[in-house]
Structure formats: C-alpha cells, structure tokens
Amino acid sequence: MSVGAILGLTVPVSGDWSRLRGLQYSAVAQLSYRRMAGHLVMAAFAIAILFGSVSPVWLGLWGLAHVAVQVRGVSVDRSLADADRRRISKKDMLRHTLTPALSGLLWSVPLVAFLPGTSAAQAAVVGTIVAILAIGSVLFYCAVPVGVLSFVSIVGLTVLVALAVHEQWALALAVVVFLGVALAGTIKGSRAFLKARISEISMAEKEAVVSLLLREFEENEADWLWEVGPTRRIRGASPRFAYALSSRKADVEGKPFLEVIAGKGWDGSRLSPSLHELADKLQNRQNFSNLMVEVSIKGQRRWWELSGTPMLDERGKFLGFRGVGSDVTAQRESSEKIAYLARFDTLTSLPNRLQLTEAAGTALQYANQWRTHCAFLMIDLDRFKSVNDSLGHQIGDRLLAQVSARLKALIGENQLCGRLGGDEFAVVIRDATDHRVIDKVAQMVIESLSEPYVVDNHTLYVGASVGSAIGPRDGKTVEELMRNADLALYRAKDGGGGRHCQFEPILHASAEERRKLELSLRGALERDELELQFQPVVDAKSEEIVSFEALVRWHSPEHGFVSPAKFIPVAEDTRLIVPIGRWVLRKACEEALAWPEHIKVNVNVSPEQLLDPDFTDDVVRSLSETGLHPQRLEIEVTESIFLRDASVARSALEQVMALGCGVALDDFGTGYSSLGYIRKLRFSTIKVDRTFVKGAEQQSAESLAIIRAVVAMAQSLDMTTTAEGVETIEEAELIRALGCDKIQGYYFGRPMSASDALKLFSRVDRQIA
Length: 769
Fold this sequence. Notes:
By secondary structure, this protein is an alpha/beta fold. Helix content is 55%, strand content 17%. The strands form four sheets. Strands 12-13-15-16-17-18-19-20 form an eight-stranded mixed β-barrel, surrounded by five helices. Strand 19 (720-723), helix 28 and strand 20 (742-744) form a beta-alpha-beta unit. The longest helix is centred in the N-terminal third of the chain and has 51 residues, at 169-219.
C-alpha cells in the first residue's frame, strides 16, 4: 500500500478505493465535535496564559478566528457523515483538508507574533499546547492523514523558523526529529486503519455469501436426503423427504420405497419405464446418478431426479441405499412445453412448419423405399387479409382457429395437416399412389373452408386456394416439393382463387420469367423504358373530348413490349408501383399542360400507392412543379383499395379532394361493391365496367338494370358516369340512351402517344378555322 494511495494522491487499480475513502472521511466525521472542543479548550487556555502580556484585542480576535474555523470544520465534517455510502470527490477532500490547515496557521500566530514579548514560562506552556495538539492529531485523526500532515507540517515549520531566527539549533533539531516521528506515525496509523477496514469489508462480504448460501439452502425445498434399508423400505426419512411425499415423517417410515412413489400403479403392470429402471438399480445394488423418475404422489404426477449409492459396512454387508433427490417437475414441464412449442403452432395447436417439413421428409423416404408417391398440399385462405384489416387481428386469430378445426376434421389416415404461418396451411399425404386422392382432399378443403364462419356475431366468408406437388416426381427433396407446391398455389391464386392447381414443369418457366421480369422492371425507370399513352374520354352527347386517361406502357429491350396485365401485378407485389406511379402522375401532369384548359387527365392509382404515407405529398408536388390546375386532375381508384385499410384510403382521397382534384371510382360493380363507399366519399365520377356495356349491347336484363341503377344513383348524388369499353356505334347509341355522361372506348379512340393526342386538338382548331 503506497504512501500516495494512503494520502489519497493516487488511486490504485486494484481494490474498492472509492469505498475506502468514504470510510476514512466518515470516521473523522464521528470525531468532529471532540476536535472542536479540544482546539477551543486549548485556545482558551493559551489566551489565559498570554493574558496581560498580549493585547486583549488581538487575543480576542485570535480566539474568535478559532471559533469560526472549528464551527466551519464541524459543518464540513458532518456533511461527510454519509461518505461511507457515496463517492468522495476531490472537492470534498479539499474542503476537509482546509480545516486542519487553517488551524495550523492560527496556532502558528502565537508562536511568531505573541511569544517574543512573553516570558520563557509562557512560551514553554504555549509550545507544550501546540505539541499536545500535534500528538493528538497523530493519535486520533490518522484515518485522514492529509489533514494531520497539513496541521503538523504548518506548526512544525513555523517553530523551526522561529528557532532558527533565535539560533536555537539544538531545539530546532529536536523539533525536526519530532516532525519526522509524527509524520511516520501518521502514515503508519493510516495504513493500519485502512488495512483494518479492508479486512472488515472482506469479512462482511464473506459473511454475506455464507448467509446467502445458508438462506438458499434453508429455503430450497426441492432437495432432500433419502435412505432405504436392505429390504428397500424407507428409514430415517428427513423432513424434506416427507414433505416431497406429501406425508408426515412417521407415516412413511418403514414403508416400501417403490410402493410409496408408484401410487396406484404399484400392481406392477402400470409402472412407468423410469420406475422399472429405478427398481432394477435398487435390486442389482448399482450406483445411479441423476436418474429421471416419473412418480405419483397422492395421485399427482411428478418428476424426481434421484441419485443413490449402496451402503456397506466394514465387512462388506449390504445395508441399503442412501442418496439425494430433487423435484424437477417444473423443469420437466417447461422442457416438454418448449418441445411442444418447437413442433406445434400455439394459435391453432396444429403441427408447425418444422413438423410438416419432417413429415414431408419421412413421406419422401417412404415413397422412395416402396416406389410409391406422396403429396404436399399448400393451402392459402382467400380474402383473409381483408378480414384482418377491417375487423382486427383478434377476429382474424379466432377465424384461423375455426379454419384449423375444419382441417383437422378432414384429415384421414396417413395424412397430416399443419400451419405454415399466417393464413397458410399445408397437408402431407404419405401415400398418394392414387393421384385422385390429392384432388379429393383439395376439393374437400376448398368446400369446407369456403363455408361461412361466425366469429363474435360477424358472419365471415373466406375461401381457399390449394397448390399441390407429388413426390418424388415433382421434387426429390422437401425443399423442392414445397417450392413446387407453392408455385402451383400461386397459379391457383392468380387464376382468381377458390381452386386447386397441381404443379406442372411449365410453372418453373413462368416463375423464372416473372423473376427476370421483376429484375428488368427495377431498372426500367432509370433506363427511360416507360412511356405514357392517352385514351380519350368524350362527352356522350357532343362527342367532344373532355379528358384523357393516362396509361403506362413498357417497352423492354430484353422482353419487348410487356403487357400492363403482366408487369403491373409484378410492380404491385414488389411495391415498385409506388415509384412508377409517382413518375406516371408527374408525367401525366406535364403532358396535360399542352392541352386546352378544359381537358382533364385521369391517372390510375393502385392500393399500394394510395396507402403510401407520401401519396398526398406526391400529388401536391406534381401539381406545384408542373403548374397544372388541381381541377384538371382526376384520380382513378378501384374498390379493392377499401379492402386493405379503408380508413387510410378514405383519408388520403379526402385530402386529394380538398386540393380540388376529382376522384373516379373505376370498374364499379365488378369487385366488392358497397354503397357505403359512395356514401362516405363523394366521387366525381363512377365508371361502368366494359362487361356491363357488352351485356347491355346483347340485351342482358341484368346489365341494363345495373347501368340504369348506377346512372340514377350518380345523378342523385351529383356525380358523373363514364361507360368503358365502347367499341361500336350501336354500343355508343345504347349507352347514350341509358343516360351515361361520358364514353370511353376504341370507337372514339385507342390509347395513343402524347404527340398524337396533341394533334387531335390541332385538327379541331384547323376545322374551326
């Protein structure tokens, strides 16, 4: 322990020195009143000795200074009373050291200023008082050596200077020796104090550890000692062992050990395998360690972990078994629960992906071994997302639980159904040699899952799509089999859902084509491969152009002309539709600036765009940067936007309407039509789908009735109607007669480039001229 560490000038790397510093200063705080009393009593005694030889005024001032210093010292010391419970700062150390330093300066005053005019006896008494104070500091205040050294050094140096002035060299030498002894004693005493505190801390920590271990041992009721005699009867039962048996000690003494822990299974035929193993160990007198045993205590199933050693006397005679045991039921149940969670879905209690994968692997091995076929069916719920988004996840979870119950009821022998995740399920058919069983199971699943559900007073309708793959024909590994079933499922969903599709090799080519298409589409904007075409919309009565619908086209150097029906779904699935839609909106506004001011531009917006948080900002930015008036822009949406998040969609459209833009409801009547949408949002236009136009031209009563109803509703709500897909003069006349306000179709113009659209107005201007 270095002198620097003792004095607090350095902080050693090892040891809790911040706590030791606190113990040093808190110890001094306990003696602060004694120090004050000692200094003030000695100061009063000195004043009495010097009274008559020194001016009373100076003596009074000197005494008051002592009082002030000691009162301050007490205040500082008491503020350090809690130093053993907090960290001591350098500022605290300096504040404390200032008190002994000031005291040393005050006691130096009489040695220099008062003694020269006094007698030798008075000087001797004052010197003795100073020496007593110095010795007292060394003896009682060595816990904080810096303060002691500052006091002793100041008064000692003062005495040496005074003796040197009067050439008292012998006395000066004695003072030097006294100072050396005092300083050495201070360091030694402080070192002893610190070592004592370190020992106390170490002992306290050891006592805490021992107390903790003893407390844990006393509180731990899971461990006990057990002992049986040569006949395997319990003897010397400990209180804890009796507690583990849920019995009193006297009630279990002398009873057969195995009979007590076997419970009702003691007849021999119903013993658990682990109890049989324990019985064998006891009978063969074998050591055993950490043996997991299933026991029955008062009819309750428990798990014990037992260790035992046979006991022999000095002559080798068998005396019985002695060992330790613990109740590990909680750990065992926790392990079983973890194992269950690893293989079963917590929501539906169906086998999870891991168990389905294992079952598929086993089925493939069986098929390869016996030259048979197996099958993997992947099931996806139709319209489940709309239920989840509109009614919440709790309703969705309850719906999934009902779906799982229906699937369980359908599954037969050699079949396993499970949940892959989300709204995806799967069925493994171990023996699918008769391929008709695959289609039979798939159709049963579709029919059963398409029946209505009642969840919390909600009647819900969701369908199911199924994709299947046959192993090992469609996949020699589990990964291949599942991937190909997924491709078949994608084809079933792409065909409208509610159907079963089996895997065909061509689906790989389609998937690869889609992958390449997506890769090319990601760079289409940067490579300037997209362009806009515009199809005119005319007034039904005057046949004058009132607007153009902007249609995006893609000419790829790699794929050639790609139909929108092919690349738009890819863009929506990958959310590339958001930047593409942003470009379409901006480009359409730019082109519309060249048209007459009464001509509008219609821009289609997908659900992904509309739900994007920046959609409204994109509209504002396109209008402001191009300078197009908001009333000349009409946003076209389909009813499918309300199936994702109706509140977000409605909020976005209301903000667009607030700007002054129009909003058209496209393909009305072909999706999930609801008059509630029209009631909540005042669309500017309702577009009648081309299927109704074709039906009306063929005199379909349903189509005619629908068009008349839409026109009447739009007129009453102050909306306009646009009929799509008009291709002949007969269709145009019929639509006009039915009261539609606007017409769009090949009869009045096919989609054309921006320059061709602009020429239409130039031609009209020349005709007018």
